[in-house]
């Protein structure tokens, strides 16, 4: 276990923003993770748990407490069953699963962060989400003071949400277990229209597993969503806003504001419709690269990513986020909700 005082946090996040931690603990075993959490809780110490730092917006003042960085390693395959330690790099895990010829997470290629964060956010992209394959999550329960195993059903997954996100101070994820599929070298059915178009297939068809994986990587890279230290479009937290899910009344009000525009619409359960945050941002007048010349701008490749151009502060980023959120609300009456976790700051 490595302990640092007054440790900078910005280098541990993909946004490269945020002030220092009073105390930073890097844990490389599950036992060290549990020990650190127990010690902080016993002392009444504020605790922040981070993995890959890809979904965090940390305030400029930093964190006045213990930051636990989970750096555990572990990739274990038993047939189609995959167990990952929470600190495993997600992009590497997906690549290894594809190398093993197993389908189920191939459309989640290139997503930065750690395996332990995937059930918290119910990470998803291109028509696939981890809720489809997670069978169990092993976590330390800070309320019961013991390690517990939650089934996929226990996790209460929904769109970019879970039991862990609903109660962020209770569980610390240690291990994640998946049931993948051997489809004879083929992918899961292609669900996402953009992927299907790129592959030249109909929705519902399968393609070669590696072709699906490589196609998603290229699509993400084209949007600045694959980490590259030299490309400031990737100095982001990925998609900053979730796609709004509207009730029937909210959707009817939204349609009245469109003034002839045709907005994307997808069924999202009984009485609910999902629309596109990227479409809303673009049609509210915020184009790619909006804010050029400022320290924080929209990505030049994707309107959903808010980026640090190299000298930004967290407040610079939040000012841009508020400008976009308020502009979309004024144009369409829809409230955008941030996807990254806010630490010491709010929109």
TrEMBL record:
Protein name: UDP-N-acetylenolpyruvoylglucosamine reductase
Recorded family membership: Belongs to the MurB family.
Transmembrane segments: none
EC number: 1.3.1.98
Major subcellular location class: cytoplasm
Pathway(s) of this molecule: Cell wall biogenesis; peptidoglycan biosynthesis
Record has Nucleus as a keyword: no
Co-factor(s): FAD
UniProt KW keywords: Cell cycle, Cell division, Cell shape, Cell wall biogenesis/degradation, Cytoplasm, FAD, Flavoprotein, NADP, Oxidoreductase, Peptidoglycan synthesis
Cellular localization per UniProt: Cytoplasm
FAD-binding PCMH-type domain segment(s): 17-183
InterPro entries referenced in this protein's UniProt entry, alphabetically: FAD-bd_PCMH (IPR016166), FAD-bd_PCMH-like_sf (IPR036318), FAD-bd_PCMH_sub1 (IPR016167), FAD-bd_PCMH_sub2 (IPR016169), MurB (IPR003170), MurB_C (IPR011601), MurB_C_sf (IPR036635), Oxid_FAD_bind_N (IPR006094)
């Amino acid at each position: 276990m490595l302990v640092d005082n007054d440790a900078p946090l910005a280098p541990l996040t993909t946004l490269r923003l945020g002030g220092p931690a009073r105390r930073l603990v890097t844990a490389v075993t599950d036992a060290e993770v549990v020990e650190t959490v127990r010690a902080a809780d016993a002392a009444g110490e504020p605790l922040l748990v981070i993995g890959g730092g890809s979904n965090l917006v940390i305030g400029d003042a930093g964190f006045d407490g213990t930051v636990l960085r989970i750096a555990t390693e572990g990739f274990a395959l038993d047939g189609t069953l995959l167990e990952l330690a929470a600190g495993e790099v997600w992009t590497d895990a997906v690549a290894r699963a594809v190398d093993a010829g197993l389908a189920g997470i191939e459309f989640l290629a290139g997503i930065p962060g750690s395996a332990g964060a995937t059930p918290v956010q119910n990470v998803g992209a291109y028509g696939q989400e981890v809720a489809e394959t997670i069978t169990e999550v092993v976590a330390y329960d800070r309320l019961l003071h013991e390690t517990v195993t939650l089934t996929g059903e226990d996790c209460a997954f929904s769109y970019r949400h879970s039991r862990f996100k609903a109660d962020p101070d209770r569980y610390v994820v240690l291990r994640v277990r998946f049931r993948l599929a051997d489809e004879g070298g083929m992918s899961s059915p292609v669900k996402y229209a953009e992927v299907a178009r790129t592959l030249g297939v109909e929705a519902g068809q399968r393609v070669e597993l590696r072709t699906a994986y490589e196609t998603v990587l290229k699509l993400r890279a084209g949007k600045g969503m694959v980490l590259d230290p030299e490309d400031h479009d990737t100095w982001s937290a990925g998609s900053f806003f979730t796609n709004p899910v509207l009730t029937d009344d909210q959707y009817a009000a939204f349609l009245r504001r469109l003034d002839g525009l045709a907005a994307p619409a997808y069924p999202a359960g009984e009485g609910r419709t999902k629309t596109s945050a990227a479409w809303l941002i673009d049609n509210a007048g915020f184009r790619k690269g909006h804010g050029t010349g400022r320290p924080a701008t929209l990505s030049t490749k994707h309107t959903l990513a808010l980026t640090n151009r190299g000298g930004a502060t967290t407040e610079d980023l939040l000012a841009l986020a508020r400008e976009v959120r308020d502009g979309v609300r004024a144009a369409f009456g829809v409230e955008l909700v941030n996807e990254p976790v806010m630490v010491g700051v709010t929109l």
